[in-house]
Structure formats: structure tokens, C-alpha cells
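Subject: sequence -> C-alpha cells, single chain

Hey, anyone have a minute? Need the predicted structure for the following. Not urgent.
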Amino acid sequence: GLMLLYTHAVWGLGLDAFFGANGWQDPLLIRSQAVSGSTGISFWWYVQPEYYQLVHWCCMVLLLMFTIGMLTRVTACAAFIITVSYATRALNANFGLDQINGFLTLYLALAPCGDALSFDAWWARRQARRKGLPVIEPIPRASTRLATRLIQVHLCLLYFFAGVSKLKGEAWWNGDAVWMAVANREYQSQDLTWLAWHPWVSHLLTHMTVLWEMTFFIAVWNRAWRPLVLAIGIGVHLGIGSCLGLWTFGLIMLVPYLSFISPETMHSVLVWVRAIRPVQVLSPVEANPVETVSWWPQYKHIKFTGWPFAACDRLDINAPRLHLVCDDSNLCGGLLTDLTNAGFHCQTSPDIADLCTALEHHPVDVLLLIAHDEDTSDDIIDFRRILLQMGAATPASVAVLIDGETHDLRHSDAHICLYRQPLFEQLRRSLLLALCERTATEEEADQLRQRAGVVTAPSLNWTNP
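Reply:
Had a minute. Here:
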């Protein structure tokens, strides 16, 4: 979205020059260059010169709405039409950046790209809270997978044919292509003339570029090779930006790379970021407390008739989603590492209030609730009451109360309570056994029970350094 705003703002600097009858690309010239007599789809053919500015600013407003995710289903389609219309009308100013913008906006128009991080999603959550309704998480859709796969395949084809076209040039065979690019003063952003005294560097980079482009469509599908292949691509395109000054092209080429990063990887990165965030120490103030913290004391005394958070979808026994509540940052970091190694996809919260905020948007399969003091234990006990009250609609849970007291708690197979400081293996087994009650089939439950009986994870030293 930001790149679309930038590129179309540049178009707007010379509307008469780009689209006018007496500009650089008059209609007769474009029609004479068109393939098979077709000039491509563009509404600019039907706009009178006196309305150029009005139409352009309407397009900019639509692109801004698309960027922030407002009315995304409509503005995504509008963004594609706008991108194609500008590019095909100014045919001789149509470069790789415009082509990448075009295919990305096409595939985003097919996908529900505004379901998560967008103004639309924020507004839907806000309205649900105002009406006291549960916030519904985005539902995985086939159109999302289709758009993602189309972006991946399109990028593979783009690189392959880029490599094939390079083989038509002699400079790519004799190794001089990179040198010819960096020595061209029109594009020279960095002084790389020292390569003239080291021609082997230019030759190596030239041949590696062709090899990488023509093998990208094979190597990128191998999970082991994918990080290296994408890392090389990042280096290539950042090099194009820094050495040739083509920053817009270099950056837009990195956007499709996100389609090759799995949701699990992105989730792990977010967990890692949250695990290393500094602990905030709040000073007493006279102002009203933050809303997301203050509602929990009232919320915990409500008798619910339904699960008030995001609904849990089907459990994936190979990658169960776990949310850890622990106010000890030192313990939390090490525990997250061991849980991730044990096959859990983890999120973390410092307290129950933060957990409730997270559960409004992110469904989980199992909760791990760890209490070190009496106040935290009371909150966890109150939250367990909600879990037990809601029955099968809730995620499974394991509560660890290590405050030195033995509480008289109601137990169930899906909501297990541990005391003192259990070893990690006992903790892992308890989580898997609790998850058995949330499986869709008995076969899946048996698989979890088998995993619970096998020691695969190291013990964790629960003693704080």
C-alpha cells in the first residue's frame, strides 16, 4: 500500500506529461506500440484533461484507504484497477516496479487481506467490545491460501524467465554484466570502480546471479534451502537499491518473500520478541488506570453463559497453540524455549488481565498458568473457575501454584493443577494429557497419550538465578 501511494504520487507530478494528448506519450504513440491493437485496460483513456487532478486525487484517497485497510474488499479491487490504469496508459514509463505492484495488488484483491491488521479489523473489534459481544477471530480461508500460492508461483516464474532472458546477453556469459551496471554513471550510487582491478569479483557475481535466478523456483520449495535462497535474494535486491539507486524496485521485490515465511515462523518470531521485552515497572498515578487492566476485577465475578473469548478451532496435535501466563521474566524466557522445542507454538502474558486481552483475538488450545505469589494465585483460581464453568468450549489448562499453599481446587481431566515446582517433563506430560480432552478423535488422543509417556524434553531448572 505504501509503495502504491509513493509510485502514484510520482505519476501525479506530471499528469499532463504522462497522460495528456500533447505529452510525452500521446495516444497515437501508445496505440502504435500496442500489441495486436490493444492498448490495455485504463480509465485514463476516457478522462478529460480538466478532470485529471480530480480523478488522480480520488485514486490517491482510495489507495490510502487500501493502505490502512479501510473497506478493504472494495479498495483492494480499486487499487488493482488504478495500478493497471496508470501503468498501461503511460506504457513507456512502465518498469519492473509497476509490474510487481500490478501482480501483487491483483492477488491481494483475491484474498481477505483486511481481516487481521487493518482499520476494518480494528473497527470490528471496537464495535464488538462496545456491544459486549465476543470478538471473532479471522477464519482461515481458501482464498488466502490461493493468493499466497499465486504470489509464490508468480515470483518463481518471474525469476526463471529473468534468468532465461539474461542468457540472451553476451555480458551475462562473459561475466561483465555486473561491472557494466555498477560502472554506468546514470545508475551509480556507490563508487564500485575498484572492481575494474578485480574482474573475478564481477564475473563471480554475474554468474551467481543467473544461477540463483534460474534455480530459485526449485530451491525455494525445499525447507532446508529456503532461508539461504531468500537471504541471497535479500542481498541481491538490497544491493540493487544501494549500488544502483533503485530502492523502490529493490524493496518491492522483497514484499513477495513474505509469502514464503510460514505463519508458524512469524508466530515464533513474535513469541521471541515478547519474551525479551523489558518488564515495565509502573509508578502509582492519580489518573484512571488503563482500561485493559482495570476491567479484570469486575470481569472475574461475572457468571458467563458462553465462552467470552475467541472460539477455539480444531486442535492440531502436531503443533498445539499454548499461551503461558508467568510474571517471572527470567523463568518465562527459558520455559518458552523448552516448550517450543517440545512442539508447542507459544504466546506469553505477564498476568491474567493481559491474557484475557490476548484471548479476545487469538484462540489457543491449552493454557499454562504459573503463580508465584498469593495475588497471582487468586487471579488464576478465578480464571480456572471460568474455564471449568464453560466446559468443552474452553481451551485446556494446566495451573502451577508454587506460592507455598495447597488450594482446595476442583479438578478435571482438561484442567490440571500442579503444586510446588514440577520438573519440565512433568509439566509437558500434564499439558499433553490435558489436550487429550480437546481432540476431535480418540486416535488423536491416543497419539497425545503416547507422546506424554515418552521423555523427549530436558528438565528445566526452576530456581531463579
